[in-house]
From TrEMBL:
Sorted UniProt keywords: Signal, Transport
One Pfam family cited in the UniProt record for this chain: SBP_bac_1
Domain of life assignment: Bacteria
Family annotation (SUPFAM superfamilies): Periplasmic binding protein-like II
Endpoints of the signal sequence: 1-24
Stretches the record annotates as Disordered: 471-490
GO cellular component: cell envelope
Family from the record: Belongs to the bacterial solute-binding protein 1 family.
Name of protein: Extracellular solute-binding protein
Subcellular location: Cell envelope
InterPro entries: Bact_solute-bd_prot1 (IPR050490), SBP (IPR006059)
């Protein structure tokens, strides 16, 4: 009975919000706007009528515009929905399928793509530039956060070809008490990585189980520095291999500089101690501590990178601290992700949800723009800010929930790192992840002092080239690491 009541309340609340929104959108509607018409939408992974897409983006628009029927245009065969790829069969490239549909006999009016796909579709001249439409309709984009608007402009060489209504992001969280106890000033927005590393050195203390660490690329206990490092290298646009996925690109001075720096920082105790694979976990974690897996929530870490979704977990833990034996509530705040001097303000893990543009061959461009304006508008953001797990792109509705008071701007006053256009390579060569694993082994050898950074990178280049050659000569087959030079033992 309670469940039914809750659902009724939730439905009533949603309708209470939607009805004024619909009225606002239909005010001043011209007579010819009553004419029934179809708006066709496709996504780069569309399998026909997508229920999730409708719930997330179109239901409110359809309610406000009953004369416009939304039709989802499939871009992928339903047989691939649940991984129905036969042995030896190659799954079609979602982006190529979308391009094919966009230029077909029944082209979609609106298309949704991933951020990493956006530069490709723009360079192919397949999207309508939105700037003239924004100017003509005086559509306000000033309230859209830099993480979204600047990121999309960067993908279009300074021009807007799409908009995104929501996003997820990361920030640097810090434990205020640890800083106060150490007599160190709190971190600030806009700091460089080197400044954060220097702070970390001043905060690290203790040994073994009692060690307190200054910084980690993740709050997770026993995190892996090789994977965390990608947040550091992405703004520098360091790549493992070329755009064709045929040649390694790691035996360079820039890669050497990064690996040498990380090895020295590890030696200087900037990061948590390395996990010894022979011993497993280095700490005797309290089995009764429900947050043993998280160094920050276990009060063992002064600073770490978190995504917005983790805030709720920390909030709930603090609220229910009395229920968790040995847990001490954490006084915390966040600042922007550090950046490099040569890429100031660029960094963090930013994912834009619902990046949509108008097909250059749209049959109904007017309603396509009307829809994009709607889901990126002020009213839609206000409505979604109550329930969306992601952050809405309009800053005026980005406020801490549950009575919290923290520096919310840290999650959106950043610019995403340039998109990695290697997604197609990963689809075409799914085994290419093994190349990354070679680098993982080499990097750990460097951290453990078994080899120098340059020697490790040269070995990664050599073994990686051999593996890429195998993949090119025998596509679809698992490369054989045994045929390559063995990993040096030190």
């Amino acid at each position: 009975m309670k469940l039914i009541t809750r659902k009724m309340v939730a439905t009533s609340l949603t309708l209470a919000m939607v009805v004024p929104l619909a009225v606002a959108c239909t005010k001043g509607e011209k007579a010819d706007d009553k004419q029934e018409r179809v708006l066709k939408i496709a996504t780069s992974m569309g399998f026909g009528d997508d229920e999730y897409f409708r719930q997330q983006f179109t239901e409110i628009f359809e309610f406000a515009n009953p004369n416009i029927k939304i039709e989802m245009i499939p871009t992928m065969d339903d047989k691939y929905r649940y991984g129905g790829v036969q042995p030896g069969e190659k799954m079609p490239d979602p982006m190529e399928k979308l391009k094919e549909v966009m230029q077909g006999d029944n082209p979609p009016d609106v298309v949704m793509v991933g951020y990493e796909q956006l530069p490709d579709i723009i360079e192919s001249n397949m999207l309508t530039q939105l700037d003239p439409l924004i100017t003509k309709d005086k559509f306000d984009t000033t309230g859209i956060v830099p993480a979204v608007i600047d990121g999309i402009k960067n993908a279009g060489s300074g021009k807007l070809y799409a908009l995104a209504p929501t996003f997820s992001s990361s920030a640097l969280i810090y434990n205020k008490k640890m800083f106060t106890d150490a007599g160190v000033d709190f971190p600030k927005d806009g700091m460089t990585w080197d400044e954060i590393f220097d702070l970390s050195k001043r905060l690290t203390k203790g040994e073994g189980e009692n060690r307190l660490n200054g910084f980690s690329f993740s709050t997770q206990a026993q995190g892996d520095l090789f994977y965390g490092l990608q947040m550091y290298t992405a703004p520098l646009q360091l790549k493992m291999f070329d755009d064709a996925g045929e040649k390694m690109t790691v035996d360079t001075d820039q890669w050497e500089k990064v690996w040498t720096k990380m090895a020295q920082l590890q030696k200087d105790n900037v990061f948590p101690e390395l996990m010894d694979p022979q011993k497993g976990m280095n700490r005797k974690f309290d089995q009764e501590n429900p947050f043993a897996y998280d160094d920050f929530m276990s009060n063992r870490l002064a600073m770490g990178i978190i995504n917005y979704g983790q805030i709720q977990q920390i909030t709930n833990a603090n609220k229910n601290a009395a229920s968790y034996k040995g847990f001490t509530p954490i006084d915390w705040d966040v600042v922007t992700i550090p950046s490099h001097p040569e890429a100031k303000g660029v960094g963090g893990s930013i994912y834009m949800n619902g990046i949509m543009g108008i097909n250059a061959k749209a049959q109904n461009p007017e309603d396509a723009w009307k829809f994009i304006k709607f889901v990126n508008g002020d009213d839609w953001a206000k409505l979604k800010s109550y329930s969306s797990y992601n952050l809405v792109a309009r800053s005026k509705y980005l406020k801490p929930k549950d009575g919290l008071d923290f520096h919310m701007e840290a999650f959106y006053n950043v610019i995403p790192a340039p998109s990695d256009n290697n997604m197609k390579i990963y689809r075409d060569k799914p085994n290419i992840y093994q190349v990354q694993e070679i680098g993982h082994q080499m990097f750990n050898n460097v951290l453990q002092g078994k080899t120098t950074a340059r020697e490790g990178l040269k070995e990664w280049q050599t073994q990686g080239d051999a593996m890429l050659k195998q993949m090119k000569e025998n596509p679809g087959q698992m490369p054989n690491p045994m045929s390559m030079q063995a990993v040096p033992a030190g």
